[in-house]
Amino acid sequence: MEYHQGGIERRQFILSTAGVIAANVAAPSLSLAQDTAEAAANRGRIFKSVKWGMIGDGGSVLEKFELCKELGYDGMELTAPSRHNLDEVLAASAATGMPVHGTVGQKHWGVRLSSPDAAVREEGRQDLLTGLADTKAYGGDSILLVPGKVTGEGETHDDVWQRSIEQIRLVLPTASKLGVRVLIENVWNGFCETPEQLRDYIDEIDSPWVGVYFDIGNVRKFSPSENWVEVLGPRIVKLDVKDWGKSNGFCKIGDGDVDWAAVRAALAETGFTGWCTAEVRGGGRERLADIAARMNRVLDL
């Protein structure tokens, strides 16, 4: 397996369109904690949301949208293949002005593109195609994908690399037609555990419709998060926000070992603008308000 550093056209595409995407997002609401505060450096450049499953309060789709807007979140991230009523989602988005920025794939851990079983890989690809269509219907522009898992039982690092790329390339015409990107998340799956490997994986696919959904906290176990930002650069399209510490594991945002000042500096150096989504333990109004305040603080929102 060879790692490549190509993909110049794709990276130029990402750089040229990132600003346009962000500019089309509704102006972010101010969190209650910042109503009277001086504008932060990344407000209007980085927009925040939470994973749908984190929202513990609000019975209806509309109530969940309204709660998140009230707490200062800028948009919503749903799941795909769909677990939501499309009409309710579209009505809630229109009523609140809260866009759905994207979705998270729901089946990629169990139905893996890296499976040694060709039928399972086919099923995973069909799920991804369905997810792309669902995302488009909600008005989103990306779907988060975990491309596989190194199991040691028919799924080596090279297997995940080769099999997942083969399947991803088959969905790229659909992604292009719909205008929805496939974004690879870095997780604890034994795959691409250095930033150089993830960089080369993305560059081997070499498509403007594939990028990185960079999880800031997940990588801290392996090396400083800011190093990943520096290596991945414009390949990063969206951010998952969490923290991790050697002594306390996954913890509240800001309470782990992530050097947030260094992460902010690295993001600024790459010119990042776009969505960040919390991926931590959720809860009701009080918990979600605390998450919003912590995101504001560590990312200067």
Offer a few descriptive terms.
301 residues; alpha/beta; 8-stranded parallel β-sheet; two-stranded antiparallel sheet; 9 helices; globular
* Rg over CA atoms: 18 Å
Q: Kindly state the mean pLDDT as a whole number? A: 90
Quantity of strands, as a count: 10
Strand content: 15-25%
Main structural class: alpha/beta
**Number of H/I helices:** 9
Biggest beta-sheet profile: 8 strands, parallel
> Low-confidence spans: pLDDT under 50, at least 5 residues?
1-37
Quaternary state of this entry equals single chain
Question: Would you give an account of this structure?
Answer:
The chain has about 300 residues and is of the alpha/beta class. Helices cover about 40% and strands about 15% of the residues. The protein has 9 helices and 10 strands. The strands form 2 sheets. Strands 1-10-7-6-5-4-3-2 form an 8-stranded parallel sheet. The protein has a two-stranded antiparallel sheet with strand order 8-9. Strand 2 (about 75-80), helix 3 (about 85-95) and strand 3 form a beta-alpha-beta unit. Helix 2 (about 60-70) packs parallel to helix 3 (about 85-95) and helix 6 runs parallel beside helix 7 (about 225-230). About 45% of the residues are buried. The model is unreliable at about 1-35 (pLDDT under 50).
